[in-house]
Amino acid sequence: MIFSSWQFILLFLPISFFVYFWLNRQRKIMGGKIWLVSVSLIFYAYWNIYYLPLILGSIFVNFAIGTRLSRAQRLPSSTHSSNECCSRKKSLLVSGIAANLLLLGYFKYTDFLIENINWALSTSYAQPHILLPLAISFFTFTQIVYLVDSYRGETAEYNLLNYSLFVTFFPHLIAGPIVHHRQIMPQFSSKWTLLPRHTNILKGLFIFAIGLFKKVVIADSFAVWATAGFDGGQPLGFFDAWATSLSYTFQLYFDFSGYCDMAIGASLLFNIWLPINFNSPYKALNIQDFWRRWHITLSNFLRDYLYIPLGGNRSGEMRTYVNLFATFVLGGLWHGATWMFVIWGAMHGIALVIHRLWTRLRYRMPIALAWFLTFMFVNASWVFFRAKTMDDAVRVFAGMVDFRSALAPTASIPTSDLAWSGWLADSALNLIPASLMGSIPIYLSIIVAFVIIAQKNSIEMLNGTMNLQKLIYGATTFAVAMCFMFAATSSVFLYFNF
Prior knowledge:
The protein has about 500 residues and is mainly α. It folds into two domains: about 5-195, no CATH class; about 205-495, no CATH class. Helix content is about 70%, strand content about 0%. It is built from 22 helices and no strands. The radius of gyration is 25 Å and the shape is globular. About 40% of the residues are buried. It is found in: Cell inner membrane.
């Protein structure tokens, strides 16, 4: 079940909403929480019920470790026992984090490790081809954050029900955002969230409609062109290659942006504000700014729990560069167990090092040039992110620099049957390279995408008074998106794969 499916929109979400607030109206607050945890687990098990024990086991183990860490933090102690207690706490934290990472590593990287061992040592160990459980990266990272916060004494004394709700709340369960307990649980404890609030309902439906439109109308349309180019196997000319790379660049943008909007919208129906995870990243003027806008909670996680523990910028300039590079290589590997993701992460690590060196020179680049260079780099790096093999990436890049194909003879298209034929039509068509003719619909869509990303984003549109104009706009986009949704089967959100 995905956010853009009719089962979610017409059945799961309305039933979850009405039963939850009905229970709250009956003053059965605990019953409401039990209901939300139950439907969230149903939402998760809908994909593959065999992995339901995995997430339940992960919740129980991490809750037990977090509770011990939290209680140990509040125990009074002498200096001697304090040092001993601190040592035990640190060992418990390390053990908890290691257990989470080992679980993630087993499911996500076993095949990758065996494949590389076979290649390096010329062995032939069998790969188990383990199916990656849905959302394991996100609920693992969420719980690592909880363990670290418990170690620091920043968590309250939660019972198992509240902790389960924090981990499984379905709007953020599958693909984030990666949340801290302090961002979610105080909201569920507030009396202001127990009953429906019309303002939040209207805002939630509005932003959910925008996200649905982005996904099923824009992202899924670009997906067809991106898949044909990357997976087709045929050589690509100049215009086809650029159409392929830009199609995926916008497919990923509107797919992830659409998911983030729908997650925020669904959560708002329950009066819960999720942290913003996507903030117009293609408006960024440098690569650092891009990572402050793209998958914001993941960027914060990598900074707080990887970059800073590695030393951050505290050990000299050269060590800072090494830490930046290592953080993004590991961030790339987090996205998937292939060398394509490692290369993508390494490219961004190098780009951040170059940006840091550039800022030391104190030169200001023209805004238009800064945006163009940032966007072109991001677009190029997405080729490795999308390509399944190095051959696929090389094939796309080869087409992107195949200027000879761009200068191929112009199209010879008869225009006698066209209503607008004549000298002007003949002249216009004869100026168009033959290799561009088949890609004209794609490039028109790409132009529209550039126009859209230059506008206010959905969060900016959401802020302020919910007036009639916004409601009409939201209802219209929802209606159009629903038509597209029923006309074709919507694909899974791309970040569900990570």
